[in-house]
Write a structure and sequence with these properties.
- By secondary structure, this protein is α/β, with parallel strands linked by helices.
- The chain folds into two domains: about 160 residues, Peroxisomal Thiolase, Chain A, domain 1, CATH 3.40.47; about 150 residues, Stage V sporulation protein AD (Peroxisomal Thiolase, Chain A, domain 1).
- Helix content is about 35%, strand content about 20%.
- It contains nine helices and 15 strands.
- The strands form two sheets. Strands 1, 2, 3, 4, 5, 6, 7, 9, 10, 11, 12, 14 and 15 form a 13-stranded mixed sheet that branches. It has a two-stranded parallel ribbon with strand order 8-13.
- Helix 3 links the parallel strand 5 and strand 6.
- The two termini are about 35 Å apart.
Length: about 350
């Protein structure tokens, strides 16, 4: 028997409609040179953000984005009942160290680059169920730390392949809470779809789009099957960081699975955050990619009423350096949340 707040096999219905009441993002200098640069709350002057290491810079970006979000909501750290966050590094240490500074009850999340939508999904459950409100959902990444962990340190100067993506240096935050007549929300969560792990045998750590696209198609098709919704009912169906390669593969996979996607309604955060002239190869990636675009671009359009309803689905490649060296393939996962305007 299905749980009462489920629709179909994978989709959740929020009955108490968690509100997104504040948001903020911080990003690096390269990201500030892209088309969204003037929309960021904080821009680091240098990739190291004045810290002694790139890892510490990632911590600082996450921490400062959280503090800016709390300032916008006129909340102190003690006014938040839970923080959900994650990143790409071993043991999600940047998020854990940021939470150490903020002193908010912390639940670490890991969905690789799908972490922002996973955090919103779970944070929405905490709020909807009456277990915590408000809840801070965060995700971040850093180009230099991700390269060192998953590929090669920058000092190596390796040649990037055409299918490779540029990990976003940035962090995004969204504050969720129960409806409050004293608060003017930016948007609200109405549904979510939990993704399953899909592995089509990709082994190239420089081609994340190919690893993630089948999982993205599986989640979208599951949502449409569960709910009866169609892509035409959304202003945008938004993927996290499939890039040029993965975005094209998503269209192919969805068509094969019986849910053709209209290209004009599709949007990918990895293709939005950088200008093509910045030479990010196949586009942007990283936990911070979808988180920063959500905060700086997507939520403002919902708040203004330009968009009424979007399906936001961050996508993740679940690889580790150890398993990749042992010959393991790269699974993918994608989680989706329906975000609607409140005007």
């Amino acid at each position: 028997m299905n749980a009462p707040n489920r629709m179909g096999h994978q989709t959740i219905v929020y009955r108490n409609t968690p509100w997104i009441t504040a948001t903020a993002c911080a990003a690096g200098p390269r990201e500030a040179q892209g088309p969204l640069g003037d929309k960021f709350d904080l821009v680091a002057d240098t990739p190291d953000f004045g810290q002694e290491s790139y890892e510490q810079a990632e911590v600082a970006l996450l921490r400062e984005a959280c503090r800016i979000c709390l300032d916008k909501a006129d909340l102190g750290e003690k006014g938040v009942e839970a923080m959900l966050g994650g990143d790409l590094l071993n043991q999600i240490m940047p998020s854990s160290l940021a939470a150490r500074s903020l002193k908010i009850p912390f639940l670490g999340m890991y969905g690789a680059c799908s972490t922002m939508s996973e955090g919103l999904l779970v944070g929405g459950l905490l709020v909807d169920g009456g277990y915590a409100s408000p809840v801070l959902c965060t995700a971040g990444s850093h180009y230099a730390t991700a390269e060192r962990q998953f590929r090669y340190p920058l000092e190596y100067g390796n040649q990037r392949t055409p299918a490779s993506q540029w990990t976003v240096t940035g962090a995004g935050v969204a504050l969720l809470s129960l409806p409050d007549p004293q608060v003017h929300p930016l948007a609200k969560l109405t549904r979510a779809c939990m993704g399953r792990v899909v592995d089509m045998g990709v082994t190239d750590a420089n081609n994340m789009g190919a690893a993630m696209a089948p999982a993205a198609a599986a989640t979208l098709c599951a949502y449409f099957d569960d709910t009866g919704d169609t892509p035409e009912q959304f202003d945008r169906v938004i993927t996290g960081d499939l890039g040029y390669v993965g975005s094209e593969l998503l269209l192919e996979w969805s068509d094969k699975m019986g849910h053709p996607l209209p290209r004009e309604r599709m949007m990918d955060c990895g293709l939005t955050i950088y200008d093509p002239q910045q030479d990010s190869h196949a586009g942007g990636s990283g936990c911070g990619c979808s988180a920063v675009v959500l905060s700086s671009f997507i939520l403002p359009k919902l708040q203004s009423g330009e968009w009424r309803r979007v399906l936001f689905m961050a996508t993740g490649a679940l690889l580790s350096p150890t398993t990749s060296m042992q010959g393991e393939t790269i699974p993918g996962v994608a989680h989706a949340v329906v975000i609607e305007g409140v005007r």
